[in-house]
Amino acid sequence: MKFIQRELSWLDFNARVLAEAEKQDNLPLERLNFLAISASNLDEFFMVRVAYLVDESKNHDEPDYTGMTPQEKLEKVLQKAHDFQMRQVKCLDEILVKLQEKKIKICAMDDLSGIQKEFAENLFYDEILPVLTPLAVDPARPFPFLSNQSLNIGVRMRGDEGENLYAVVQVPSILPRYISIPVKTGRLFLPIERLIAHYLPKICSLYEISAYGYFRLTRSADFDADDDTDDLMEEMKRTIKRRKRGSPVRLQLSGGFDEDLYNFLRKMLNVNKKFVIQIPGILAMASLSKIVSMKDLGHLRAKPILPLPAADFMGRDDIFAAIRERDLLLHHPYESFDPVLDFIKAASADPGVLAIKQTLYRVSGKSEVIAALEQAAEAGKQVTVLVELKARFDEENNIQWANRLERAGCHVIYGLTGLKTHCKITLVVRREPDGIRRYLHLSTGNYNDVTARLYTDIGMFTCGATFGEDASALFNHLTGFSMPPEYSKLIIAPENMKRFFLDKIDIEIENAGKNLPCGISIKANSLLDYAVVQKLYEASKAGVPVKLLIRGICGLLPGVEGCSENIRVRSVLGQLLEHSRIFVFENAGEPQVYLGSADLMPRNLDRRVELVFPVEEPDLRGRLLDVLDLMWRDNVGAWELGPDSIYQKVEQKGGRVCAQQELSRLAAEAYKNLYS
């Protein structure tokens, strides 16, 4: 059975992100943005996936379904990650040349004029030096604890008797990484670590400095909370503390790093050589996003795709009346997230609303959703919120939101033991003249107004009675001790979602055998579940055409003779992060379309509460089929996976098609037609 190894597939995905930074026809800050994204992605990859492989290689030596042992996987991943980081360095050098042509430069102290040096010196003594804490290492002062991803300067000095002395200066993360130096035209940025390094003789004035270098430590963040606890909130707080002190999984050094200083650091940090890499140039490239986001440099970035008012909601003052007329669809960020916020705000203020129930996985820093739920609770409505405390890297944020909601009088729960709750659903229970009616918002993405401008997601509003009954049953299961119910419309993981997908594929296989119309089309972030991949191979062998839009990890290998000739796999990248999940089954000529929160990975199907739901309105189904068709016609950000496990850029034949720009144009056209 052909199966692509998970971590290697992910590195291929990040290479496609980096390829956008390498595109010569992209504007320079657009390129820099993709480079920063690729660096941020790689940081998290080391913290989570490399850390996992390290633990796995210590505890197991059996090959997995790819035929590779944990140690073999780790070695291949580290080599591929090393090559990738060298490619990032080359890419940055090319971008910096392009920026200099636009009079934008990341400079060194030697590049500054006298007046500019005076400005930098004043800044150093007034704002930077008071924050610095140089830490000497000697018998009385042990090597300091270095926080995850902190940028540091290692210093080697010569003692009175010629011996080596060492110190560490941590670059304060609370201060801006790039200092804007006054210049007549263009922009000049001085990395703060270069300014600090220039004044090291003042900071470490007791001894002569022999060498210094920049370094950055990445620690394991692969920690999960112990579900066998009496207090999940306190356990999460302990888990967050453990993560900050995780074992080192990568040590990045600046180019030309002093050998004695390197040996000292490696000994103090207990880092194996294979986890050490020298990076010529700038460390922590993710920080370059700070330059990308500067408003006065917008002309050097691609024109942003801005949300427009959704045509279906324009002129509709009563959102409940609009939903009663028919199911409604929102495609973010082409269409604004505002109707989702309006729905929750209207529910919090409407005297007829009795209860609001909602799941929250990731929310923004200043969430209007949270504010509306607080108002609803303070107004006496029954508000139940499932806040997932175990959302990786959002744990602290979610703990704060949970505490705040509880103070407002909301019923806050933290999910089911042993499972993350990843589904996206809001249920509003409203008393109306003809009785109780339930209104729903179901989505592929989070209730986060910030990422709703950056991620492509799709949400649906409905007040269908069966949908409402299923939603009530789901929340009762999540909040109480009821048995998992039998759902009529909703497909829920881990109870029945994997079986649902396998059964749907089986039906397409049966239809192929009967010469009936058959086919499978899926858009998701990742495809890794072994049983699903096997079943898709079975479908291909039966003659079922399978089209997969998988943005990131894909364990399936298409186009293999005798196995997957009828399967095609593409990955589409662009300005926006493709995040929506769409599942289409041809169903003998009457296509069934589903949306949901779940990717086709073991964690989604087996270890999370996920939600997939049918789209039943014919015009909404047609709209989603059009989205998939457009994504398949994309030849700007599309890559196709071959049977050799290599992605090739899709050639532009028959004219340029950028799906994201076209979807933005269509949203603008629908909005314009409303007023024409």
Report on the architecture of this protein.
By secondary structure, this protein is α/β, with parallel strands linked by helices. It has four domains: 1-98, Up-down Bundle (Methane Monooxygenase Hydroxylase, Chain G, domain 1); 103-231 and 247-271, Polyphosphate kinase middle domain (polyphosphate kinase like), CATH 3.30.1840.10; 311-489, Endonuclease, Chain A; 492-675, Endonuclease, Chain A, CATH 3.30.870. 39% of the residues lie in helices and 22% in strands. The protein contains 19 helices and 27 strands. The strands form four sheets. Strands 14, 18, 19, 20, 21, 23, 24, 25, 26 and 27 form a ten-stranded mixed sheet that branches. Strands 10, 11, 12, 13, 15, 16, 17 and 22 form an eight-stranded mixed sheet that branches. Helix 11 (338-349) packs parallel to helix 12 and helix 18 (618-633) crosses helix 19 (659-675). The chain is globular and about 90 Å long. The model has no long low-confidence stretch (mean pLDDT 93).
Quick summary of this structure?
Helices cover 39% and strands 22% of the residues. By secondary structure, the chain is of the alpha/beta class.
